[in-house]
Every structure is written in C-alpha cells, then in structure tokens.
Amino acid sequence: MANHKSAIKRHKQSRKRAERNRAARTRAKNVVKAVRVALLEKNPEKAAGALTTATSILDKTAGKGIIHWKNAARKISRLTRAVNAARAEHQ
Questions:
Q1: pLDDT digit string, tens, across residues 2-39
Q2: In whole angstroms, what separates CA 48 from the centre of its chain?
Q3: pTM metric for this prediction
Q4: What one-character-per-residue DSSP string does 49-60 give?
Q5: What CATH number should be reported for the domain holding residue 53?
Q6: What separation in angstroms does the CA of 78 have from each of 21, 35, 54, 83?
Q7: In the chain, how many domains are there?
Q8: What is the pLDDT of residues 28-69, one digit of tens each?
Q9: Range(s) of the domain holding residue 77
Q10: Which residues of 23-43 are buried (b: 16+ CB within 10 A; e: fewer)?
Q11: Could you tell me which of 73, 45, 77 has the C-alpha nearest to residue 58?
C-alpha cells in the first residue's frame, strides 16, 4: 500500500473506477445476452426491443472507454444482422 497521501487517494480513486467499469462491462454483457436469448426463443419483436437497449448501452460503454469502440461496433453489427435475419425468417 502507498505511503504518500496523494498515492493513497489515487489508489482509492482507481479502485472506485475499476468497480464502476466492472459494473458497466457486466451490464453490457447482460444486454447482449438478452438479445441472444430472445433470438433463441424465436421472438424477433422482443429481440428488436432488446437490440435497441443493447445498442445504446454498448455505445455508452465504448464512449467512456470501458470497451474498445470497434468491439462495440462489431457486437452491434452482429446482433443487428441476427435480429434482421430472425425478422425475415419470421415473416
């Protein structure tokens, strides 16, 4: 553990930020999972709603630098393609 007052403060800040980032990453994983579960249930309407939420959360997470922006774009792209395919199949 650090001895200087500024280093102690820095350590506390980094722990707080790490906890916040961990929560944001978990939330992003859960919204992606919600879209995939809706697709497995063959429910394109539910999947489309979940995709809207997932897109927003992934963009926010990437914007804050918690995940890489290309990672977020790739996930959004793949989920969108899957939802669109499910919609086309359902019609």
A1: 789 999 999 999 999 999 999 999 999 999 999 999 99
A2: 16
A3: 0.87
A4: HHHHHHHHHHHH
A5: 1.20.58.110
A6: 23, 11, 12, 9
A7: 1
A8: 999 999 999 999 999 999 999 999 999 999 999 999 999 999
A9: 5-90
A10: ebeeebeebbebbeebbeeee
A11: 73
